[in-house]
Structures are given as C-alpha cells and as structure tokens.
C-alpha cells in the first residue's frame, strides 16, 4: 500500500486513483497522521499531496518530521515537496513568477524517478512558491524554464519531490513517474486487481454475515446494483433487496429494474409502492433544499417501516464508496485557520445515505472503491452494461428536475420529455460520450408560442447535456445542432404542456449539474 498524506489539495484523490491504476492499493489519510501511526499502517511508500497553503504561512499544515526517518520512500508533490525542502533545511521562496498550466520538463538526471519520462515532456504546474535551495543530500533531477527545482531527490534516504502534478491527465509523463515511484522505488507488487478484490470481498462478507440475513436498499444505480450482485454471490437468498418506488423515476424504469433483478438475475427484490406518500410529502414545496430534505426523510420513514414488515434483518448493506470515507475524514484544510472546511451546496440523498442510527449492523463491501473501480467490479461479476454504464441519476430523481411544485401531472410531462431526450441521445450515439443528458421542466414559467394558427401558452423544457470526469466539475456539451433540432421538434410536438425547448450552456462551476 501507498498512503497519501492530504494537505487539502483538490488532487489528493486523483493521486490515489492513479496509483490504483498501477494495481497498487492506496489510501488518502490526514496530514496529521504521525510517524508512529504510519509505522503501524506499514505502507511501502508515502506521498505528500499538494495543498493551498504556503509553507511559510503561520498556520501552514506540517507533517510529523519523524516521517523523513522512517526509511519508507516519500514523494512530495507541489506543497508536499516544498514542505520536504523546508523541514529538511532547504529554502522555499515566493516564486518570481507563479506558474499555472503546462510546462516542459528539462531533465538534469534521468535516474530512477524519471526513467521513461522524456525530455521536454509536458507537466502540469500550479504553484506560487518555489524551492530556492536544496537541503543537504538532495540533488536536482529536473527543472523548467521558470522553475529551477522541478524534481529533486535524496537517493540515499529515498526522499523525492516534484513541483509539478504528475497525477493530472495533462501531465504527459506523469503516469510513468508514478509507476517508477511505486514499482522501482517502493518495490510494490501489482496486487490490487478487480479479481483479487472480488474474491476478498466475498470472503469477508461470508465471514462477517455468517448465516444471518441482509437487507439492501436498491436504486438501480451502479453502486447498489454492484452491491446486490456481490452480496448475492456471497450469501445467495439470504439477501433481500428493497426497491422503494418514490414515483420520481424515469418512464418505465421501476418496471425494468424489478424485472431485471427478479426474473433475469434471480435476486430477491421487494417492490414497495410509495408514490403517494412521497408526492404528499412535498406537496406545495418549491424550495429545493426543503424538497430534498423531505424526500430524504420520507425515504428513511418508508425504509424503516418496510424493513420491520419484511424482516427481521440482521445486517444492512450500504453502498458507501471511498470518496465518502475520505470526505468524512480530517482532510479539507483551511490555509488560514488550519481547520477543516466543507461548504454544503446541496443535501444529497441516495440509498447509500441511510442514517447510521438505524437498528442494523452494517456491511459496506465497497468502502475501499472509487466509482470507476465499482464499475470494473460490477462488470467482472456479470452486471449488464446498461447498469455498469448508466449515467448518474440523483436520489430525489425527477422531483429536483421540476422547478416549482411537483405534481403528478408535471411529473408526467417531464417523464415524456425525458424519454425523448434519452431516445435521441441513444440514436445519435451520444450516451457514452456524455456524463449526463436530461430534461428539466420550468413548471412555474409559461411562454407564448404558436402552433398551427393557435396561440399557445405553456412551459419550457431545459435540455441539459454535460461532460465530466467525476461530477465535481462539468462542461456543457457541444452536442450537434442536428441533435438539438430533433429533440426540440419532438418535445414541442409530442409533449403536451410544453411549447419551447432551451439548451443550458452553463458549465460547473459556476452552475451545478442539476438545477436544484
Ligand atoms: P450537482 O447538481 O451537485 O450534481 O452538480 C453532481 C452529480 O451528483 C448527482 N446528484 C445526486 N446524486 N443523490 C445522488 O445520488 C442526490 O441527491 C444528488 N444530487 C445530485 C447529479 O446528478 C450529478 O451527477
């Protein structure tokens, strides 16, 4: 295992993902982890992430200086390198010129860390400070036009630093450098494979659950579906999936999901019809946060009463993923106060987010995985591509795509428009190119139109198509005009209550992907 000490960089998770791509397991942990604690974790390598601070800020986060003496190889990235330099007696200063974006690496010593990294490779830089003088024992491996120390090493102590970000895709030789670090410098073995994970997960589930019964809230998304497959493989019919139909899913989706799981996969699914309860719970509500909270609360109420009715169950399976585990850890650091920061934009609701105080013991077999790893696991245990590749769909469903009060009639309008979007996205081969493509109904807006010689006064539909890596940032997609034309024509002609279609050309940030 390689651990990443997180100093608050937006890229810390990405470093972990890149390392795992080399089939070496990695975890993100707090920068406050002491050398003693690290010894217990026994990693083969340590990476210090970047971060928003300057090493000479009063409250700049520091790592335990004993880390340098553990005999474990360390790679400092950006802030991590500057910290290494400063703590070991070198000098870091404010750079004459801050460097953001691409830079060409000029290699001074192509040894170990930089093997197979070509002279002139493009690497991604993002720093305002710069290392001015190296600590004793260090030598220069590479520089750039603006940065005299772009890569450094103390080979004796196996301490390395890079000013650039090898983890981002724009860094051309970045993966080669990471491979050099994990394989040649840390001597890791490529043991983190999907097959090994599945085997171990099944063993662990069996050992934990024994002959007891497990309940899983199924949504049809890739996480809960993969979880269902994994558990079914481990404990067969002692798994019961509960699917709560809130009434906010897309056209024909609930039926399709239940048929797939029951008839095709032979997994026990209890279908709970709760449409009326949910729509009543948000009757008259227009505020997005109130809507989200009421749906979340209703979900818990339904889940609790239904699990009593169907149970008893000993365990609850949750689709907690690794990013949820990291987020609850002590990671995001305010450079001014040294405190953890998290700004809540939306209250997320999904079936993995049931509160911990339900009277169940938990099984969370996906806790170690990133989303792309869940997809690989799902695929390897037979989950069909239509679920593996499914575009994300928010827990509160269409309710947060109706801007205004949610009513049965408005849901029907949106469902019909959404179906047309999905059909045309598929026809044009856009499904896998887009992170998401969907319709939003502006239910409180009416505009004037003309159809046949008649005046119309009806709602607009917003078409939202975005591309994204992880949903954290997103670009509005430059979809073909022809696609826009067909979707617009079809929606206006086929969906009663809609007389106008607009295309959302806002990226995230500053917009969010969903409208509520
Ligand atoms: P935003 O709108 O915050 O969405 O840019 C980012 C991604 O998250 C999805 N999303 C949700 N997923 N429960 C979920 O499971 C939710 O409450 C929820 N809200 C947003 C959204 O579809 C996008 O992919």
UniProtKB/TrEMBL annotation:
GO terms for cellular component: cytosol. Keywords: ATP-binding, Glutamine amidotransferase, GMP biosynthesis, Ligase, Nucleotide-binding, Purine biosynthesis. ATP binds at residues 219-225. Its EC number is 6.3.5.2. The keyword Signal does not apply. It catalyses: XMP + L-glutamine + ATP + H2O = GMP + L-glutamate + AMP + diphosphate + 2 H(+). One of its GO terms (molecular function) is ATP binding. Gene3D superfamilies: 3.30.300.10, 3.40.50.880, HUPs (3.40.50.620). Residues 192-390 form the GMPS ATP-PPase domain. Pathway: Purine metabolism; GMP biosynthesis; GMP from XMP (L-Gln route): step 1/1. SUPFAM superfamilies: Adenine nucleotide alpha hydrolases-like, Class I glutamine amidotransferase-like, GMP synthetase C-terminal dimerisation domain. The active site is at 78 (nucleophile), 165, 167. It comes from the Bacteria. InterPro entries: Class_I_gatase-like, GATASE, GMP_synth_C, GMP_synth_GATase, GMP_synthase, GMPS_ATP_PPase_dom, Rossmann-like_a/b/a_fold. It holds the Pfam family GMP_synt_C. NCBIfam families: guaA_Cterm, guaA_Nterm, PRK00074.1. Catalyzes the synthesis of GMP from XMP. Homodimer. This is GMP synthase [glutamine-hydrolyzing]. It comes from Chamaesiphon minutus (strain ATCC 27169 / PCC 6605).
């Amino acid at each position: 295992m390689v651990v990443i000490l997180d100093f608050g960089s937006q890229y810390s998770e990405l470093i972990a993902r890149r390392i795992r791509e080399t089939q070496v397991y990695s975890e993100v942990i707090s920068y406050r982890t002491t050398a003693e604690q690290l010894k217990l974790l026994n990693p083969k390598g340590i990476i210090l992430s970047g971060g928003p601070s300057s090493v000479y800020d009063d409250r700049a986060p520091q790592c335990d200086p004993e880390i340098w003496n553990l005999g474990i190889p360390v790679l400092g990235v950006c802030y991590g390198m500057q910290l290494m330099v400063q703590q070991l007696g070198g000098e870091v200063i404010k750079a004459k010129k801050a460097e953001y974006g691409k830079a060409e690496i000029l290699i001074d010593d192509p040894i170990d860390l930089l093997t197979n990294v070509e002279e002139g490779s493009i690497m991604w830089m993002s720093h305002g400070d710069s290392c001015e003088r190296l600590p004793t024992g260090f030598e220069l491996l590479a520089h750039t036009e603006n940065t005299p120390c772009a890569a450094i090493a103390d080979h004796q102590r196996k301490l390395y630093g890079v000013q650039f970000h090898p983890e981002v895709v724009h860094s051309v030789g970045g993966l080669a450098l990471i491979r050099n670090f994990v394989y040649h410098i840390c001597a890791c073995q490529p043991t983190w494979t999907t097959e090994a994970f599945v085997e171990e997960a099944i063993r662990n589930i069996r050992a934990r659950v024994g002959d007891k019964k497990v309940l899983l809230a199924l949504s049809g998304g890739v996480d809960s579906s993969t979880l269902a497959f994994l558990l079914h493989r481990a404990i067969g019919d002692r798994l019961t999936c509960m699917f709560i139909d809130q009434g906010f899913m897309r056209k024909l989706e609930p039926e399709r999901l239940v048929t797939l799981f029951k008839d095709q996969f032979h997994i026990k699914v209890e279908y709970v019809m709760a449409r009326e309860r949910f729509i009543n719970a948000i009757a008259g509500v227009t505020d997005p946060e109130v809507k989200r909270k009421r749906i979340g609360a209703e979900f818990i109420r339904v889940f609790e009463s239904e699990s009593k009715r169907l149970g008893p169950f000993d365990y609850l399976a949750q689709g907690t993923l690794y990013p949820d585990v990291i987020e609850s850890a002590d990671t995001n650091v305010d450079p001014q106060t040294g405190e953890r920061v998290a700004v809540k934009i939306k209250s997320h609701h999904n079936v993995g987010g049931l509160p911990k105080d339900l009277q169940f013991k938990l099984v969370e077999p996906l806790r170690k995985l990133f989303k792309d790893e869940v997809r690989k696991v799902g695929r390897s245990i037979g989950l069909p591509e239509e679920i593996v590749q499914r575009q994300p769909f928010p827990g509160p469903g269409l309710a947060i795509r109706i801007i205004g009060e949610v009513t049965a009639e408005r849901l029907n309008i949106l469902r019909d428009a959404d179906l047309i979007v999905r059909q045309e996205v598929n026809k044009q081969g856009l499904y896998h190119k887009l992170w998401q493509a969907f319709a939003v109904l502006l239910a409180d807006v009416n505009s004037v139109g003309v159809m046949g010689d008649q005046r119309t006064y009806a709602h607009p539909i917003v078409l939202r198509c975005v591309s994204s890596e992880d949903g954290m940032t997103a670009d509005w997609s430059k979809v073909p005009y022809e696609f826009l034309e067909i979707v617009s024509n079809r929606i206006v002609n086929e969906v009663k209550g809609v007389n106008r279609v607009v295309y959302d050309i806002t990226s995230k940030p500053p917009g969010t992907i969903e409208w509520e």
